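Let's study my pick:
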Amino acid sequence: MPQFPKPEDLPDDQRVVITGLGLTSPNGNSLAEFRDSLLNGRSGIQDYEIRYFGKTVAGICDFDVKRHQSRRDARRGTRAGSVGIYCAREAVANSGLDWDNVDTSRVGIYVGITEHGNVETESEIYEISKFEYDTSVWTHHHNPRTVANNPAGEIALNMSITGPHYTIGAACAAGNAGLIQGLQMLRLKECDLAIAGGVSESIHTFGIFAGFNSQGALASHEDPTKASRPFDVNRNGIVVAEGGCLYTLERLSDAKARSAKIIGEIVGYAMNTDATDFVLPNPKRQSQCIQMALDRACINADDIDIVSTHATGTGMGDVLECEAVRKVFGECNNTFINNTKSFIGHTMGAAGAIELAGNLAAFEDNTVHPSINVDELDPECAMDGLVINEARELDRVDYIFNNSFGMLGINSAVVIKKM
């Protein structure tokens, strides 16, 4: 492994900190609402019905689209764009930046996504089916809606940002990947402020439900709030969810210069690839990714206070990730492990960013939110430090570790330190 400098030994213009965040999730439209739900066991999953597929369950966001967009712009754009605009605007407000005096040519937008364009394409095919598939009625908004840079581009248009913008297609590791890209661009001095994280509009496409159902990987339960149950012996699949979380990232030198409130410092990160299967994860590669992030942070596994797992509620996926986590953290006595998807479902490209946010609040309240819906722990998912059904209070929280993995074997991990 390469030798990395200790983060605290780097000059301040090479250290990257989080100064603001904005989110929408199925159980909260601000960090305060989201955190309250996580600490009090409130699920955001509900019954849902989508054309062609029918009745299912999903994590559905309920934020005020018109808070930051006109009705016309929202109709012209995409759901992912609306999620991104809401999160970006809320993040900037949360950061305390004097936005009217920010040089927007020095702002970069780096948005992680799983997939994009399926929602709009499915909707347009449905519409032309009413006209015997006459493509002359196909919407002229199709191309700008479905280009891969759309969510980031819609944010740029809404906020008059003229710096670089693009999306990072990294499957369900994309939320972490957005943060990593933002950090790297700040260190390269390609921007002075990064708006980074991930968004998802996945529940609005019937194809994703049908696809998971064909795999036998779509969760079901008579009580929708209990459908997402990672680590439980009776888990039966993924609950599809929408949402987003974007952060304002700054160099520490810039944050200090404006006396910004610092949420945490990104001190470690890593990405790698399994290269073994389209869907099934490789625990050896996952544990390597975890260890690489710790090495970059120049800390040991037992320095970590909270590990946020990616576990989605699938049979083999949960077992294999637990194997990877145990390999690295299995001997740690004061490291606690939780899962956020049990509350909100799988927000796909936004998952890493939203799940990190839910744990960042522990820097303030020193509490590990639990994994819920674990009525009977699967012995193959048993891990020392797993926090189940009830929150756990700690003396202090200094380091948070965030796992996020995706299809085609993409793995990501981020380490955040309290400042």
Remarks:
- The mean pLDDT is 97.
- Residues 79-95 form the longest helix (17 residues).
